[in-house]
Structure formats: C-alpha cells, structure tokens
Amino acid sequence: MESAFFEQPTLALAEALLGKYVIHETNQGSIVGRIVETEAYKGPEDRAAHSFGGKRTQRTEVMFGPPGHAYFFLIYGMYHCFNVVSAATDKPEAILIRALEPINGIPFMIQQRFPQKYAAGLRKEESLTPRLKKQLTNGPGKLTQALGIDQRYYDHDLKLPPLSIAEPPTQNIDEHLVISRGPRINIAYAQEAIHYPWRFWIKNNPYVSQ
DNA sequence: AGCCCGATTTGA
DNA sequence: CAAATCGGGCTA
Fold first, then answer.
1. How far is CA A136 from the centre of its chain?
2. Which residues pair with A152 in a beta bridge?
3. Amino acid A95 CA to nucleotide B7 C1' distance, rounded Å
C-alpha cells in the first residue's frame, strides 16, 4: 500500500487493514495471508499500549517514527507479535495484526508451525483439513510463526519487500466486508482502557482468533 | 544486578 | 488450568 494508506487515523487504519494481504517474500516463495483481525493501540491515552503516557524506550522507539513501518515485540519469551506503526511521527500508535486467513504458501506455513509433523511427513489427505488450516494463523503468535517473520523486521518499511502489505488481486477483493468491533483481548491490566472497542474483525470469518 | 511479568500458545 | 521462556523496563 502507498504512504497515504498508512497515514489514516489509527482506528480507521485498523479497519482498513482488514481484507488486505500480508506478503512475506522468502527463498521458498511468496507467503501470503489475508488480514481478518486487528487491534488498535493508541500510545499516550491508552493504558493498554506499550507506549502509554508517551513511554519511549528501545522497544517502543519505532512507534515514534513514521507510519507504515513494522513494530515487532517478543511476548512470553516465546512468541513474536507483528504490528503496523500508525499515526504521524512522534505519535506512538500501532495496530496489532491478530489473525490472518492463509492465502498462499500453505506448505511453508505448516512447516513453520508444525516442524515435527512436517518432518514425519503429513499424509496428503490430512494435510489441509479446515481444522489444520485455521491453526496456522488464527492468533498473533501463530501468524508470525507461520509467515516466518520476527524481530529482524523491526522498523522495516511495509511498503517494501520482503515484508509488505498490499491490496489483494481485484478478483479477490470483497466489496462488502462486514466488520465487527469489540474490546481487545488479554489486557486485564489496562483499567479504564479494558473496554475500549478497539478490536476489529471480519464478521463470521473462520480465521479470527479464539 | 536483580526482579517481575507479559497485546500467547499449548498440552495435561 | 498451569507451564514454557526471556528480554524489557523498573527499582536499587
């Protein structure tokens, strides 16, 4: 997407990202997922945000930069979360990508998510049950694992390969997306911000996180 | 230096 | 329902 797309206000961008493609160019091809769930985090005013109160540290630094760059952080010592930096320079806001619908590179995703199974060799008929397909990318930690993305893309410009956000091919654009919104997940510490309806998802989409 | 804990996932 | 697992951020 072009610069203007990322310059939208954070809540508008969180909605606008739904239906867009995340593309990771790897030496094993183009790994692609369609965004179906997002959460907005609005720095200074938002107790749930890492940048609450304008907190500026090595970790949050990228959020003070221009919109459209990638913010990655490690959670629970194990999982990487992928965010799109939003809002103007010096306004530390970002959007967490919570779930994707697998579009391309599904064998790669299975290998990343379930290396053990993959090594053992999946039987063809069970290689892509609806159940397994969902498990690939229906959560913020899962989708980064599936796409093979992490901190090495911290501050990467999402207008450029090898990690970018793009309009889907015209024949795959859903003109009539129905969007739902509600409170964000796992922010019990956030006091008054707990109930802000800043989580957005595509209504009835089976790949939304649980 | 030390301590605490998380924008999660998994399996008992 | 608790363990896994570790670096950031805060206190000293």
1. 13
2. none
3. 10
A39 strand-pairing partners = A96, A199
List the structure tokens of A80.
């990487």
- Return phi, psi of residue A130, to 5°: -55, -35
A114 pLDDT higher than 60: yes
A55: nt with nearest C1' to CA? C9
Residue A209 and residue A197: Cα distance in Å, rounded? Answer: 16
- Nearest nucleotide over every DNA/RNA strand to the A141 CA, judged by C1': B8
For residue A186, what are its two tokens? Answer: 């796992």
pLDDT in tens, A163-202: 999 999 999 999 899 999 999 999 999 999 999 999 999 9
Interatomic distance A174 CA / C3 C1' (Å): 41
From the number of C-beta atoms within 10 Å of its C-beta (0-12, 13-18, 19+), residue A2 rates as exposed
- Number of H helices and E strands in chain A, helices first, is 6, 8
